[in-house]
Amino acid sequence: MTEANTNRGVLFDVKQCIGCGSCTVACKLWNDLGYEKPDVAGNAHGFDVELTDKNWTIVTYNREKDANGKDVLRFLKNQCMHCKEPACISVCFAHALYIDENGAVVCDPAKCAGCRYCMIACPYSVPKYEWDKVFPSIQKCQMCDSKIAAGEATSCSAVCPTGALTFGDRDELLALAKKKIAADPSYVNHVYGETEGGGTRWLYISDVPFEKLGLPINVPNTPINDYLHGYLKYTPVVFLGGGALFAALSIYTKRRAKVAGHGEGDE
Amino acid sequence: MKKQTEKQQKKREPKKLSRRQFLGAVAATTAIAGLAGCDMGENTGGSGWLPKQYRSAANWPIQLKGRVPVDPENPSIVRRDDACILCGQCIEVCQNVQNIHGYYELPVKNEFMCVNCGQCALWCPTASIYERSHIDRVREAILNPDMTVIVQTAPATRVSIGEEFGLDMGTWMEGQQVAALRRLGFDVVLDTNFAADLTIMEEGTELVKRVTSGSAVLPQFTSCCPGWVKFLEFFYPELIPNLSTAKSPMQMFGSMLKTYYAKKQNIDPKKIYSVAVMPCISKKMEASRPEFKTVAEYYNDDSMKDIDAVLSVREFAIMLKEAGIDLPSLPEEDYDSIMGEASGAGLIFGSTGGVMEAALRSAYYLMTGTNLPEDKLDIKAVRGLQGIKEATVNVPGVGDVKVAVCAGLSNARALCEMVKAGKVDYHFIEVMACPGGCISGGGQPRTTVPPSDDMRQKRLESIYAKDAIYKLRMSHQNPEILQAYKEFLGEPGSHLAEDLLHTYYISRAEDVTPKKFN
């Protein structure tokens, strides 16, 4: 067993992906998630799917223009980005969401109250709700934390036949990504996830613009949680100040009523 | 005694429930149900199953990984993910036997790399990969009283369909197959072997031209196999001039059916629905290739297709079983006429080396004006499951004709490299994408998974055993072929034959960056 590394990550190289979808099947097998019903042609899953409580990772395909303006087929693997400072965790009052010892953002369904705050908080719309359950909770990619804990790679990166997915230490992966970009000018000069939302454990490099693949580019570089501090710091002031104000008002109105009451009584 | 009965009586009396007890029970039930509803004890990080090779310590390389990509719009192949176990068999055959996966540089261009051969469908242990079904459209056509549904059967289907009914590998089922197709409701049952003979006439004539003219591009490659043709277009577009312009037998049959046959039999070609039962699922791709609009051009009607539907042997078996037709118990029946008669040469198209042997039998005649002597008709050097075979046939007045035969695209790749490097001086090369040829094609029954050489050998033997006892063993002896040329086509390579029976190829170099190996 390898010693615990709290800084795990996965690098997804868009240029290496052939769209085989092995990663999505591995996720289904390892996490025992099951499939939606096959369509008329017998196709189950494939590309025509969205992230749901049972689809923790999906691969979509796009026909886009590459750097030379040629039509190219490109794939994008979607799953939880595993932010270093996740907004979902900061909004989770039940502490169902937490960062485990490997750095993965995991959800403990036993603790999940089903409030769905995380669904609103996540800039990537990752957490999904079990709408069809009587006692639903949130479901999402757990970065195979039990598999990582055993010294193995995540299921998806273990099965990738082309090396599009690389599992490892996030800092090393970041260095690898930058080395790849430096060696090959066709890559977009940015590692998606290096700074997005304060940094994510899943990193992407690509030769077509990230927004064309469907990755949100409006995610700020500061952790979402930092924005909260801007106004949450006024909480004590509002509470204490409000309390003082209303206390003063209460005293004032009572006093006024008493004084007025005396006057009435006199007449 | 008395005490006991009192006790029993007391037991029978309904228990009285106090208000406190009742409320307690309700509270307890609610609490238990609530707790049960929570996913107590559920593992957060997954505890399912993955094949053993994926459970090694992170970052150590492993050999067999993942699976092949399948285009959701692939005309031949579909896959259902819920049956996939990531065993790696499809990628094994695609890479090591067919040399597709792993033989192109990443990133991909604008294509899911696939030649539609369907070997992955034969190797997949769970049948998660299978053919795109044409059963529904065929059924619809059969039920349509306005349509004359005409079916052709490939050479290699008659030695494998029996296996779907529990018969021994390679059992000869030609007559039963015809009977079964009639019982399924096909109006006319014809034989692709006829078109195979036609292919020999056209391809053989082309070969004779190339060999005797001296200036033309040699070697000539066969073009019967759509998987091989697509492979060449992807990886060796510079060899396209070497590819015979003759269409595959199935496509020739399609062209002839709605022109020659329709005229002879006085059927409105628009009312013909042309079905092919094939050992191959690449044929589904071939039928959908935009080049094959011969009939549409002939009649100036874009809605007409040369081939309307292609059924794999597996689909054919599904239809038979659903209709309750027990193939082995059927009587043997004969093909309809015309375009139902064939020679032994047409039959052996189904096995690797067969096209070559058939072509040599007729090319000899075309070059010398005399038939090969009876005892030399079996050209054994080109038979068998060996990956690459070669032979030399001495043709009086012409000299030695050197030929090579290969099956399996890894062997084709090796031959192409040799041809490109100028290391070989063959005149004619037969290539089949699937190991063993069509008898082990991607649309064949999954009798052994992955396909075994034992099974391939038995199907081959069955074909050659029949060829040996055929009366007509050379394509140019087939009376229906002679009739077709006399009454319709003129002569091999005529203007009409060029229009109907020949095609062109497109370079797919734009779609792939082949990997360089040293």
What's this model, at a glance?
Chain A is built from 9 helices and 9 strands.
Task: Report what the structure shows.
The complex is a heterodimer of chains A (267) and B (518). By secondary structure, chain A is an alpha+beta fold. Chain A is built from 9 helices and 9 strands. Chain A has helices at residues 22-31, 87-91, 117-121, 145-149, 155-159, 170-183, 210-213, 224-232, 235-266, and strands at 8-13, 58-65, 71-78, 97-99, 105-107, 128-129, 138-139, 165-169, 202-205. In chain A, a hairpin with a 5-residue loop joins strand 2 (58-65) and strand 3. The mean pLDDT of chain A is 89. In chain B, helix 7 (192-213) crosses helix 9 and helix 7 packs across helix 14. Chain B has helices at residues 2-12, 19-37, 89-97, 119-123, 135-143, 174-184, 192-213, 226-235, 249-265, 282-287, 294-299, 313-322, 344-347, 354-368, 409-420, 453-469, 479-489, 495-501, and strands at 77-79, 129-131, 148-153, 188-191, 220-221, 272-278, 309-312, 388-395, 399-407, 428-432. In chain B, strands 4-3-6-7 form a 4-stranded parallel beta sheet, sandwiched between helices. A 4-stranded mixed beta sheet of chain B has the order 5-10-9-8, with helices on both faces. In chain B, strands 1-2 form a two-stranded antiparallel ribbon. In chain B, helix 6 links the parallel strand 3 (148-153) and strand 4 (188-191). Classes of the chains: A alpha+beta (267), B alpha/beta (518).
Strand order of the largest sheet of chain B: 4-3-6-7
Q: Could you name the ranges of chain A where pLDDT drops below 50 across 5 or more consecutive residues?
A: none
If classified by CATH, what would the architecture of the largest domain in chain B be? 3-Layer(aba) Sandwich
User: Which range does the strand content of chain A fall in?
Assistant: 15-25%
CATH class of the largest domain in chain B: Alpha Beta
CATH names the topology of the largest domain in chain B as Rossmann fold
By secondary-structure content and strand pairing, the structural class of chain B works out as alpha/beta
User: Shape of chain B from CA axes?
Assistant: globular
Query: How many helices of chain A does DSSP assign?
Result: 9
The tally of structural domains of chain B comes to 2
Mean pLDDT score of chain B: 92
What is the largest interface, and how many residues per chain?
A-B, 65 and 50 residues
